[in-house]
C-alpha cells in the first residue's frame, strides 16, 4: 500500500528533469522518443525510474554485454508506451488498481463499454489500457521496426517465469520496485 501511495504522489508532483531528458535522448531513437513522449508525464517519470533501477540491477549481475545492457535500458524506457496521454492518466490508473483490488468481477463489464463516449466507456477504456498496454506498446514498436524490444515489453506484466530472459526478468523486477 505504501508503494502505491508513493507512486501516486510521484505521479501527481513528479516530472522529468534535464538529466532525464538527456538520458532518454541517449538511449532512444527519434521514433522511439516520439512514443515515449506521447505518454503522460507521470508515466515518463515512472519509465525513467524503472530504467535507473534496471541499470542498478544489471550492474549487480557482473555482466559485460553492452548490447544486452542497452536493450534493457531501452525496454525499461519503453515498457509502458501503450499508455498514451489522455487514455488512462493518473485517475484512470488509480481506478484500475482499485477495481483489481476490490471489484475485479466488474472489469469485463466495463471493458466491453470502452468504445462508448459515456462515463462507463471512459472507465472501460482506462481498464482496457491497464490490461492491454503491453500489447498496444509492442504493436507500436513493431510498426517502427523495434521488434526485439516489442517482444520483451509485451511480456513485462506477466508473472516471472524460468524461461524469462535476463533482460525481461530485470525489467519485471525494476518495474515492480517503481
UniProtKB/TrEMBL annotation:
Gene3D superfamilies: Hypothetical protein af1432 (1.10.3210.10). Pfam families: HD (PF01966). Keywords: Hydrolase. Residues 46-176 form the HD domain. GO terms for molecular function: hydrolase activity. InterPro entries: HD_domain. This is Phosphohydrolase.
Amino acid at each position: 500500500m505504501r508503494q502505491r501511495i508513493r507512486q501516486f504522489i510521484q505521479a501527481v508532483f513528479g516530472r522529468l528533469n534535464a538529466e532525464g531528458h538527456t538520458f532518454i535522448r541517449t538511449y532512444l531513437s527519434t521514433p522511439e522518443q516520439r512514443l515515449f513522449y506521447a505518454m503522460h508525464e507521470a508515466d515518463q517519470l515512472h519509465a525513467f525510474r524503472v530504467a535507473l533501477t534496471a541499470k542498478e540491477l544489471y550492474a549487480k549481475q557482473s555482466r559485460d554485454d553492452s548490447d544486452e545492457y542497452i536493450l534493457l535500458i531501452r525496454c525499461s524506457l519503453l515498457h509502458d508506451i501503450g499508455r498514451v496521454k489522455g487514455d488512462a492518466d493518473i485517475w484512470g490508473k488509480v481506478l484500475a488498481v482499485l477495481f483489481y483490488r476490490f471489484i475485479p468481477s466488474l472489469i469485463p463489464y466495463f471493458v466491453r463499454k470502452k468504445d462508448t463516449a459515456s462515463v462507463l466507456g471512459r472507465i472501460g477504456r482506462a481498464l482496457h489500457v491497464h490490461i492491454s498496454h503491453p500489447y498496444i506498446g509492442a504493436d507500436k514498436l513493431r510498426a517502427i521496426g523495434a521488434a526485439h524490444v516489442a517482444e520483451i515489453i509485451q511480456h513485462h506484466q506477466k508473472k516471472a517465469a524460468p524461461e524469462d530472459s535476463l533482460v525481461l526478468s530485470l525489467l519485471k523486477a525494476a518495474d515492480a520496485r517503481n
